[in-house]
Amino acid sequence: GTDSQKEIDAIPEQRKVISDRLDKLEKSIPSDKGKDMLKKVQSARAAYVADQDKFLEFLKAGKREECVELMKGGLRASQGDYIKSVNALIDFQTELMNKAGKDAEDAADAAHRLLLILSILAGVLTVAFGWFVTRSITKPVGEALNVTQRLADGDLTVRIDEVSKDEIGQMLGAQQNLIGKLNQIIGEVKGAADALANAAGQVSATAQSLSQSSSEQA
């Protein structure tokens, strides 16, 4: 009928559309296994097209019995193989997409876990750094206050063994120098006092000797 003839006339155009799509598919399949499966699709399609052409020739020649026999035999088998190969390629590509999606999901989960671990580690490091900074400040400050208090109480035996290079360390160093200067001055004053005491003793002894001599003369 007219509808059947329209379907037959549309076959060349449909074949061209399928060929173009297979060419695009060939460029988009990266895996070797996928390419091998695409080749099977193309081979199965070639066999199906050959049987289809035979069927059309029989149909145009009016050989109905040959058409029926071909439809029951070779054409049905080649069509089945063609559809089977196409479905196999579809299943393979679907499996690849599912696996890629699962891999992406696993990678996202791993990235989330890593981010969580890094966040915890950053928090711990922040607390540790804060403690270290606080410790590095409060300990020298406390030591400086202790030294100052002992100096205020008149204790000049204070010694500062470890002095850092920061501002607090410089202050402690200045206090150590002050202690040294004070000890030096006190030593000098003590020496002068001792010398004065010796001189006074000598003057007293001389006075006593003079008094004794005066008494003896009298």
Brief rundown of the structure:
The protein has 218 residues and is mainly alpha-helical. 89% of the residues lie in helices and 0% in strands.
Overview of the molecule:
89% of the residues lie in helices and 0% in strands. The chain has six helices and no strands. The protein has helices at 2-9, 11-28, 32-60, 64-72, 74-152, 167-217. Helix 3 (32-60) runs antiparallel to helix 4 (64-72). The longest helix is centred in the middle third of the chain and has 79 residues, at 74-152. The protein is rod-shaped and about 180 Å long. It starts with a helix and ends with a helix.
Helix content class: over 70%
Number of strands: 0
* Distance between the first and last residues' Cα: 180 Å
Quick check: average pLDDT?
Answer: 76
Structural class: mainly alpha
Radius of gyration: 55 Å
| Largest β sheet strand count, sense and barrel closure | none
Q: Helical stretch count? A: 6
Low-confidence stretches: none
Q: What order do the SSEs take from the amino end to the carboxyl end, as H and E?
A: HHHHHH
The coarse overall form would be rod-shaped
Strand content: under 5%
Give short descriptive properties of this protein.
89% helix, 6 helices, single chain, mainly alpha, 218 residues
Blueprint (SSEs and pairs):
Elements: H1 2-9, H2 11-28, H3 32-60, H4 64-72, H5 74-152, H6 167-217
